[in-house]
Amino acid sequence: MSENKDPHVAQSGTSVESVKFVYDFTEGNKDLKDLLGGKGANLAEMTNLGLPVPPGFTITTEACKVYLDSGEEPAALRDEVSAHLEALEQRMGKKLGQADDPLLVSVRSGAKFSMPGMMDTVLNIGLSDKSVQGLAKQAGDDRFAWDSYRRLIQMFGKTVLGVDGELFEDALEAAKAAKKVTVDTELEAADLKKLVTKFKKIVKTECGRDFPQDPREQMDLAIKAVFDSWNGERAKLYRRQERIPHDLGTAVNVCSMVFGNLGPDSGTGVAFTRDPASGHQGVYGDYLQNAQGEDVVAGIRNTVPLAELEQIDKKSYDQLMQIMETLENHYKDLCDIEFTIERGRLWMLQTRVGKRTAGAAFRIATQLVDQGLIDEAEALTRVNGAQLAQLMFPRFDESAKVEQVGRGIAASPGAAVGKAVFDSYTAVKWSRSGEKVILIRRETNPDDLDGMIAAEGILTSRGGKTSHAAVVARGMGKTCVCGAEELEVDTKRRRMTVPGGHVVEEGDVISIDGSSGKVYLGEVPVVPSPVVEYFEGRMHPGADDADELVEAVHRMMAFADRKRRLRVRANADNAEDALRARRFGAQGIGLCRTEHMFLGDRRELVERLILADTEEEREESLKALLPLQKKDFVELFEAMDGLPVTIRLLDPPLHEFLPDITELSVRVALAESRQEPHENELRLLQAVHRLHEQNPMLGLRGVRLGLVIPGLFTMQVRAIAEAAAERKNAKGDPRAEIMIPLVGTVQELEIVRDEADKVVAEVEEATGTRLKLAIGTMIELPRAALTAGQIAEAAEFFSFGTNDLTQTVWGFSRDDVEASFFTAYLEKGIFGVSPFETIDKDGVGSLVRSAAKAGRETRPDLKLGVCGEHGGDPESVHFFHEVGLDYVSCSPFRIPVARLEAGRAAVTSAGSDHR
């Protein structure tokens, strides 16, 4: 619920009967999005600003939730709707659907969060066989009236009555073919009248009932259909994709109709106060003469650029420009606006804070700071880590030899390569088989959502920056090129013909550039993003477009670094990764996995250690490994000089360092059959069998290895201590931290710590160097989290290993479950997102919170961090800030994302505290 507590909103203990379910546009405001939905709240806000909004009212999300919970509309809703409808009729001087001069209304969905095209809308409600005659008479235009009526039957039949929309489309195409025209505006009144008759027959055949002639029945059924559309498959899929809660419900907006299809002096359009693709200021949008709003977003007819409206209708254009400036200054952000011109009179139908590309988000945030509309803290809330990650993706190499075959509108940036597919089903099917695909359509509609999600990019031959494909792709951060008119898309034959006659068949590879709108045959090579080059220190802010973006990113990162409390470290196992991480802004290493150092040419030494039959053999193997380990740590300390380096002692089961059991068995069998020497392979096979575990991730690993294999952990501690001493004697500043993995009880940690302290003391004495090596542990088992207060007695720091903690809390084996049933869990809504991607706050997060609290109660100066993959996940970073951790650690390329989100977390939590 909104923090703006409205006395009419249902609170705990309030009866449904006392709740107000309907608000006039004059009663709400933009802060009531929880109650009125985004569309209703913003219509009310524009009404309050005195802008030309057609009168209407909003049915609240509370009414929807009652309906969804009980299956019935609230008892009071009909009377409230009747009262508001009567007031609307009095204001307009006409009644809904009356025969001589009908009031017509639209019924539109409007959830709290924008869900473009995912729920239902019905226009022209109130038209019937009688009132269409009155509309024609009042408008003085028979064609307009019959066009509006056929639109109502088509939309109502599909969205309310569930008729297959293709039946109406086929009938419309047949009517155009019979008339030998290509667009519906060329159909005359008589043609449209025949089409209405055909459409009504389709409804009768498919539904077993006539198209409803009672205007109030039309409106009531449409309201119910909008409620039902909240739980439609495409709406649920979109919410899962965008992580929108499923329990919000949608509002319903009933608005008096204004008509853009009254002739050449009428039209409809969508405008942006800034370019949603680039962020640049200017006149951006699409306009379509003699059309209703759905024609623009559907992309069925190609629009003209908004700037051309100045020549078509200068008075409306000038008024629109003034309103756009008013709205942007009022909302202090990019605004997305829908408008209609009815015979030269401008009407505002919607505004909202517009979806934008990642690059536009960073540019606009800094622009608004420079304009004095927002401050740095607010600017940080306007960008996010997911957008920054998009900007770090590679781009096409413009110097490569390419074959360009078309160019459309650059609707959503990125470099996408994949096999051409022509329907959503194929896109999903091929994607699940591991193929990268480009979804090609004439235009997309909401039913294409699952295919759009599966595809690397979307290409359409129709539509513009405001079409369904463009808006949805931008919201998902998906590469999109729209309106490539020279490309002839034949979805039935699954092919696309390009200029020159070349045919792209389904399965052929194409490349699309969402930044330029260019379409290429074949796979175009990619080069690093300028943003990555900036973080690598190879590009500096400058003047051209790429540098302008880099400048915006640079400024936002500086804002974040000044605001954040959380420090950001890197998961790095070698000097090369450590140096890259440092360039990306890492403030240390939060996880060095020493097992990665035991691979490659050292595997033989590890095998000798595992196969050792005597203490002498084991000591010899450890002695051989010691200088190699020491060299690794010297290089790390040099790369991270002056910054902390947390080194995790050996964690995985020893069998991982031995050959695969099947492969080894084959080798032994072949050697025996050939009577070749195979003593070493046989010893290895015996060792593999000896170390085999049914569930190795819960077996002999981590601290348990250090306790049962004498000398293993002390060798690693000695290597760390000697490397630190060498670096310190070379006037360096090594800051080593030794981390004991998989601890479940304080006694395990105490034993290993005592041994480590003795080794460190020996090195100090031998080198004459005073060392300060912190010793701590990973908290990755539920028992460790539950006994954190005890474990803190022996630990100077905790690092939460949330990967393993998630596995052990949920009882999941990650390697198995993600491929087996996670897809089903996500589709069924059991997960909003994988718990390995974003931390499960209620389960795993609860243990992190309680362990952090208990640990600090025992040791107030206990350092707390996290080193699982969640350390680079934007949403998880906010959680770690909230529970008071000191740092997060993630892979080098995620460091900028974590830095940005740590700054955003500090700003949003400060704002929350202030409120």
UniProtKB/TrEMBL annotation:
The keyword Ligase does not apply. Its EC number is 2.7.9.1. Its cofactor is Mg(2+). Coiled coil: none annotated. InterPro entries: ATP_grasp_subdomain_1 (IPR013815), PEP-util_enz_mobile_dom (IPR008279), PEP_util_AS (IPR018274), PEP_util_C (IPR000121), Phosphohistidine_dom_sf (IPR036637), PPDK_AMP/ATP-bd (IPR002192), Pyruvate_phosphate_dikinase (IPR010121), Pyrv/PenolPyrv_kinase-like_dom (IPR015813). Keywords: ATP-binding, Kinase, Magnesium, Metal-binding, Nucleotide-binding, Pyruvate, Transferase. Residues 435-517 form the PEP-utilising enzyme mobile domain. SUPFAM superfamilies: Glutathione synthetase ATP-binding domain-like, Phosphoenolpyruvate/pyruvate domain, Phosphohistidine domain. It catalyses: pyruvate + phosphate + ATP = phosphoenolpyruvate + AMP + diphosphate + H(+). Residues 77-302, 309-359 form the Pyruvate phosphate dikinase AMP/ATP-binding domain. Residues 551-903 form the PEP-utilising enzyme C-terminal domain. One of its GO terms (molecular function) is pyruvate, phosphate dikinase activity. PROSITE patterns: PEP_ENZYMES_PHOS_SITE. Signal peptide: none annotated. NCBIfam families: PRK05878.1, pyru_phos_dikin. Belongs to the PEP-utilizing enzyme family. This is Pyruvate, phosphate dikinase. It comes from Streptomyces thermocarboxydus. The gene is ppdK.
